[in-house]
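Progress note, sequence design subtask.
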């Protein structure tokens, strides 16, 4: 067994990021400024999209997205039960009502047929999540949206590198939102970014993210001199700081080499676990690109002899940290009580939520770390209960 604990989801921070943060500290420009603007330009170029607005989290970005797209109290938003609670919370923060449609058990993404069944006269939006970095069936979802006049917000927290039929995830719906939380593929500690092709939406996001102050207020962040601003609406305090962008603006330049590294780890896991009684991630079509954010295995007690929580505990005792992405949304009491969600209404997400375990997949992993994970998983499964 390895002697140090392998922390799940550790980001890889290089000297350039450290120097850039120190530069912000030395020049005393901590808040929103030129580094945020540069980070936005770099992400927009990488994503091949016209507008990218940095915010202080993906959750904030999803909340603003709901608001600028005009969702109102009582409007229904269809999303997936297999997501982080933030996707649902953002809908609720906007006053709208989350509605869950079950996932396809192979892709673990929203099943368009189940989405259709959930449409009512109150449905206004779809909020698909590209789970683990695998793109949703966007042609089918966008067709449903067109038919029923719905707006589409893509939760791209896992999907920076994702392509759907050659097109970047986050640029297919009305708005797409990235996360730069510490465990994501590109990090700023906390942070997010909203992508859109629509200049007017981008402008509204910017204003709403900074107290609702008119666009001129952003000039406070340059040396152009003081300008009066108006407050156009009651906005939020969701802007990103230069201190955060200092990290992200360099991380984004390495996104492809890190993807290659995770791809190599992914292939090693697939080969190393092929003979084990586990369900491994399903292959995806050549026309798409998976962002390889999470390598999830499904542990069925009937086959594996132990359940997910027992495997998690054994790996933990072997100094391997893992993650659970995610227990299905109806497994949380607050959503059951407030929205009447029931596990039996999303059986696929519920089973996945009970069986899934995410193995370390960070570009920071050494070959030895990967060997340790493989050995620990094999050992844990060899010692049946
Ligand atoms: C991490 C995550 C979020 C929230 O991101 P933050 O930047 O932490 O707000 C939202 N949705 C999904 C699917 C996530 O994994």
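Output:
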């Amino acid at each position: 067994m390895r002697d140090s604990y392998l922390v799940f989801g550790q980001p890889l921070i290089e000297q350039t990021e450290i120097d850039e943060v120190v530069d912000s500290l030395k020049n005393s420009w901590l808040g929103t400024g030129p580094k945020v603007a540069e980070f936005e330009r770099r992400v927009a170029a990488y994503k091949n999209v016209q507008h990218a607005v940095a915010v202080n989290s993906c959750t904030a970005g999803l909340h603003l997205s709901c608001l600028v797209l005009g969702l109102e109290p009582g409007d229904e938003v269809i999303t997936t039960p297999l997501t982080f609670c933030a996707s649902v919370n953002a809908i609720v923060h906007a006053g709208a009502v989350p509605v869950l449609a079950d996932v396809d058990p192979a892709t673990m993404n929203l099943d368009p047929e189940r989405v259709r069944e959930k449409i009512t006269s109150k449905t206004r939006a779809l909020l698909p999540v590209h789970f683990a970095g695998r793109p949703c069936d966007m042609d089918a979802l966008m067709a449903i949206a067109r038919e029923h006049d719905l707006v589409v917000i893509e939760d791209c927290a896992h999907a920076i590198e994702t392509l759907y039929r050659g097109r970047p995830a986050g640029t297919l719906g009305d708005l797409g939102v990235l996360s730069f939380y510490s465990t994501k593929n590109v990090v700023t500690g906390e942070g997010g970014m909203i992508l859109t092709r629509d200049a007017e939406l981008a402008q509204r996001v910017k204003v709403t993210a900074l107290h609702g102050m008119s666009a001129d207020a952003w000039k406070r962040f340059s040396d152009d001199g003081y300008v009066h601003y108006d407050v156009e609406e009651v906005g939020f305090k969701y802007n990103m700081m230069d201190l955060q962008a200092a990290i992200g603006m360099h991380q984004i330049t390495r996104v492809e080499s890190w993807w290659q590294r995770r791809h190599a780890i992914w292939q090693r896991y697939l080969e190393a676990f092929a003979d084990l009684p586990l369900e491994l991630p399903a292959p995806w079509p050549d026309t798409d690109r998976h962002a390889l954010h999470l390598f999830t295995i499904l542990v069925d007690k009937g086959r594996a002899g132990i359940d997910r929580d027992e495997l998690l505990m054994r790996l933990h005792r072997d100094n391997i940290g893992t993650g659970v992405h995610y227990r299905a949304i109806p497994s949380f009491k607050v959503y059951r009580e407030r929205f009447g969600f029931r596990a039996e209404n999303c059986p696929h997400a519920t089973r996945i939520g009970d069986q899934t375990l995410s193995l370390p997949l960070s570009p920071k992993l050494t070959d030895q770390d990967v060997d340790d994970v493989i050995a620990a998983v094999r050992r844990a499964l060899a010692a049946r209960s």
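DSSP finds 14 helices and eleven strands in the chain. Work on this subtask will continue into the next period as scheduled.
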